[in-house]
Design brief:
This protein is mainly α. It contains two helices and no strands. Helix 1 runs antiparallel to helix 2. Keywords: Membrane, Transmembrane, Transmembrane helix.
Amino acid sequence: MIILGIILLLIGWLASIQILTTIGIILIVIGAVLWILGATGRAVGGRKNWY
């Protein structure tokens, strides 16, 4: 999710498309939060492991 956010952020910034930049920032933030929660061992969405 973080990588997709970075890609959308770059495309939106280079093409001057504001909505892609906004979506990219949102995906980066959500991905970082989920990554931190997963790294601390906290169950995300009721599951500890995603397969």
